[in-house]
Amino acid sequence: MTATVRRVPDIRYSEVLGFRPLELDLYLPPGLDGPAPVVVYVHGGGWQRGSRRDPPPLLDADFYDQIAAHGLAVAAVDYRLSGEARFPAALEDVRAAVDWVRENASAYGLDAERVFLWGDSAGGHVALLAALTGTTVRAAVGWFPVTDMLGMPADVAEAGGVPDPGPDSREARLLGAPAASVPDLARQASPVTHAHPGVPPVLLVHGAADDLVPAAQSVRLAEALRRAGAQVELELVPGASHFWKGAGDVAAIIARSIGFLRARASAEATAEPPEAVPG
After folding, report:
1. Cβ distance 262 to 72 under 8 Å?
2. Is residue 140 within 8 Å of residue 117, measured between CB atoms?
3. 110 in Cβ contact with 142 (< 8 Å)
4. pLDDT at res. 279
5. Residue 34, phi-psi category: left (phi > 0), alpha (psi -120 to 50), beta (remainder)
6. What pLDDT is stored for residue 36 in this prediction?
7. Which stretches in the chain have pLDDT values below 70?
């Protein structure tokens, strides 16, 4: 099924003075009659490791091909990690990647008006934050994302994990200090802060047994979006921990997420482009 997916690697989408060039890989669907909707995919890794070439652990190496084979182009992006630049650098990079896709869509047979965001773990955090703070996309998917920086230690403890509120935590490396010591910045960096009625539809999928990024993080964002009147769907996967370890049917999770975006792509095929909400 994936043999005819075409990959265009190593596309430079942004250059930030003083940093390495930022690149993305495109995965183009086969056999489309018109411009393809496109998913900008943001990898996980605690904001401090990983790359666009690394699909979530436990998934097949052809994960991006699987998405593209269902008619959704994929732009798998790199972004500045926390050891290179602190927040909001990663957010700025993902915004730049979306802008590049929209500006260069016609050259690759993509639809500039049907762009989506999808990310896992820390990448889910950045993807959701971009979608909620002014990046013009049609929908977003977050897999086991961090959504509330200040709530992480208590959520981890409640889930039976080992919280790390100190200066060497993943969150502190991203923010430049422990979240509790920079609460205003932590709130700014938390998707839950930015729930409002104008956000695009969101799908949150989270392992119910996750003690690294507890499911309470997705539950809290879903509740905030519902209170704001936004469209949100939440699925908790029984028995699953981080990166779908222990999940009974990972293929179904992938299919659910692809189906969510395909439905939005179909519904938005002739719709007017949305207005960006100032971030």
Report:
1. yes
2. yes
3. no
4. 43
5. beta
6. 97
7. 1-3, 270-279
| 150 backbone φψ class: left, alpha, beta (φ>0; ψ -120 to 50) | alpha
**CA distances, 135 to each of 64, 89, 199, 226, 241 (Å):** 22, 15, 10, 20, 30
Model confidence, pTM: 0.94
**89 CB contacts (<8 Å, ≥6 apart)?**
16, 79, 80
Residue 153 tokens read as 């230690």
The pLDDT assigned to 60 comes to 87
CA distance 34 to 211: 43
The pLDDT of residue 268 is: 75
DSSP character for 213? Answer: S
Q: List the domains of the chain with CATH numbers.
A: 6-267 (3.40.50.1820)
> What's the confidence (pLDDT) of residue 2?
41
Pairing of strands 232-237, 202-207: parallel
Taking the C-alpha atoms of residue 186 and residue 188, their distance in angstroms, rounded to an integer, is 5
Amino acid present at 79: Y
Q: Is the CB of residue 89 less than 8 Å from the CB of residue 177? A: no
- Contacting residues for 98 by C-beta, under 8 A, at least 6 apart: 40, 115, 117, 130, 135, 136, 137
**Residue type at position 136:** T
Short-list 122, 129, 60, 61, CA closest to 98: 129
d(CA 97, CA 37) in angstroms, rounded, equals 15
Could you tell me how many residues make up the chain? Answer: 279
CB 76 within 8 A of CB 24: yes
Q: Please, which residues have CB within 8 angstroms of residue 56's CB and are 6 or more apart in sequence?
A: 43, 44, 63, 120, 121, 143, 243, 244
